Amino acid sequence: MVWPEVSIEDFPPRRDDEPASLRQDILDELTDHFVCAFNRELLKNSDERLAQKRVIKKFGDPVKIARQLWFDAMKERIMSQRIMTGISAVMAVCSIAVVGIAWILMRDSQLVNRQMLDQLAVIADRPQADSTVVKSLQSTNEAIVRELKVLADSQRPSRPVNELGMSGMMGAMGVGEGEMMGGGFGMESKPAEPSNINQQILKQLEQLNQKQNNQESSASEGMNQISFQLVQDNKDKKPAVGFKGILTKNGNQMESFSLESVSTKTGKLDFGKLPWGQYYFYLNAPWGEVCHVPSITVIPGRDYTQTIVCPVASPLEVPVQFKVNWSTKQNSEDWYLLCDFRELVHVGYGHVLRETANGFSFNSTRKLGDDLWTTIQNQQQQPKGVYLISSDDQVSLCPLDRKGYYENIGPDSLAEKTSINILQGQYTLPLIYLIPKKYLNKLSSLNKSASYDVFNSVRKEIVRYDPYHSESRGMKSGTFGVLNTAILIPSLNITDPMLNDSFGNSKNVAGIQLPRRLEFTASKDQTNLWEIELPDLSSLTSKIDSSKNVR
Fold first, then answer.
1. pLDDT tens-digit profile of 335-347?
2. DSSP class of residue 26?
3. Is the pTM of this model over 0.90?
């Protein structure tokens, strides 16, 4: 088995909801990570056993890491299953409670019915008063009796009406003393005890509706209208139609949610009434351009609306020329500039990361109003974003494989031009390689992840720079100077003492970081001439000798 010795059997028992390829993917990621670290250690010391011990000491037991990565990947499914089990238990308890409450209410309703019949009996025994009052009481009591009769008959249809003593009550209401005495009030008969289940259900529904209305009224007091008005970037500021917006609320897993909406003919994106708090917002143009609003604050009791300026159409391709200002002490005819405009996007499980087919991102941005619109250029079919510039400012597309890595090329096979066509927008240049012309056929050796010692011209010290680390390419904010453009002069794994001597460069230092990050703009309204000013690398040795702070 290939080191590290980790297999499928080292994982926890397989779950039914586990993706089929999860374990193999983790093994591939983990093995790749450990092998890369192992190879780096071998460069320091050729003893394989010692190299393995150092890798394990640095990263830990690979079996434990594999199990932890499996748990991280399955944690959401496991927690969801536990939550559903808990919810089911709570629902069962609530159902039992509802049955108990319904029984108590039914019992109470029977008691109320008995009390109402007793009150009617008392009224029947009273002497007659004013005829108007008597008639009013009679009408009211008759209505109550009819309702009670309907309820009683619906539950106990076999009970005769006279068991309720209706004739006695009717005699008391003025039908006649004889009838009242003859019919009797039926005091010795057993009073009705209807369960009144339907009435109680209706009562509960009314209470639930009232409670829900109260909750909705209370909740609506803490809700705020959130909407966006989209306008085109032109003189008329016409509505921007067909733009898709995704609004996401910040918070934990229980509080966070996302909503989608598409702008109407009036250019409005309406998300309705939502809770106050912090949100972030993505806006996608029909052709794929993206605008990100990282922070939206909704204040309680105040609706939120914002106007966003949108592009009229997708960015166009415009010609761009390069001009390299070489140092007078450098023999520019022997070199090529490899300019890599891409950024790194790392993906993987847990902390095991690697570059994939989508690992390189070539983006351009343009500012409209107060917002930036980003075009993520497709890297799947034809990877691009890397250009070779010759000593006479001729530019050619650097050959890349499907994963975005450099490919070897001969100087005679370069398709050099005076300009290239790229999408209009703003670009950043995080990385420049200075390549000897005779070593263009060994560009693939640059694909190996390695850290370089470079001289930081701002801090006046030596720092570590890794071209395959996302912070070096500007994906995250790092320490001061990390995001500045770096110029590397790698040895390309070739022993050539003259490579360093021609620039007076120290053997332990492979480049320099500029005081700033190089940025360029491609516009259709101007001549796009991108100038690159190379520092005097021959003075690098004296700067390094005077620097004592090494990181």
1. 889 999 988 875 4
2. H
3. no
